Amino acid sequence: MDQNLRAQPARRYPVLDDAQGFATAVLLVGLGLAVLRSAHLLTGGLPGLAFVLNYASGWPLGWTLLIVNLPFIAFGWHAFGLRFTWKTILVVAGLSLSVEGIGRVLSVHSTHPLAAAVAGGLLIGVGLLILFRHGASLGGFGVLALFLQRRYGWSTGAVQMACDAAIVASAFALVEPSRVGYSIVSAVMVNLVLVWNHRPGARSLIGIKEPPNGHR
Questions:
Q1: Is the distance from CB of 180 to CB of 48 less than 8 angstroms?
Q2: CA angle 169-170-172, nearest 5°?
Q3: Are the beta carbons of 155 and 195 closer than 8 angstroms?
Q4: Residues 187, 164: contact at Cβ < 8 Å?
């Protein structure tokens, strides 16, 4: 990576911009998870692991998301510092509440699994993209993906896709094979959004040059 880019100070969004970004992302991801759950599907990453535990144990999905994220939040603190960590904690807590709230006010029925996989995956992917642009994540493997991108320049989407494949494969013991196949479609859609739209050099990781005065 170009040393001049590394030397540039990170650009921060104003607090209100972060707040609207987090709220939008949490709503999009919560809706995406609700669509997937309506078709008894899952996705990759920590939401996928939370789905697996939810299907296996009946634990509430929202609180399961919070619990499984705790080790990754601790890693994020070590790798990215306090600012990234408190943002991630707010987002994860907000998502947990959003998932439980959406489940009480929104009911989706008769969703074709393929439609649910595509729509749910796109909603989650766009939500993650917004979070990454605001210097936060949903925790989980997203923290690891961001760390590997910053340290080695690896593609965030490619790293998450590898993690997602392992999570979705673990669902064969709980979900019928056809549902696992549709869940793979969902995970692919999430990661395609990231591969196409979030690459090394994104402003959330290394910052960008401010335009000259008069050219804003």
A1: no
A2: 75
A3: yes
A4: yes
Residue length, the chain? 216
CA dist 138 and 156 (Å) reads 13
Q: What is the pLDDT along the chain (216 residues), one digit of tens a residue?
A: 333 333 334 456 677 888 888 899 999 999 999 899 888 888 877 888 888 888 888 888 888 888 888 888 888 888 778 887 888 888 888 988 888 888 788 777 767 899 999 999 999 999 988 988 887 777 777 788 878 888 888 887 778 778 877 787 778 877 888 888 898 898 889 888 878 886 655 444 444 344 445 554
Count of other CB atoms within 10 angstroms of residue 54: 20
Task: Please name which of 137, 128, 47, 23 lies closest in space to residue 87, comparing C-alpha atoms.
Answer: 137
Write the DSSP string, 49-74.
Answer: HHHHHHHHH---HHHHHHHHHHHHHH
- For residue 6, how far is the Cα from the chain centroid? 25
Residue 144 CB-density burial (10 A; 0-12 exposed, 13-18 middle, 19+ buried):
buried
Place of tokens 């793979």: 184
What end-to-end distance do the CA atoms of the chain give, in Å? 26
Give the closest residue to 180 by CA, choosing from 194, 192, 166.
166
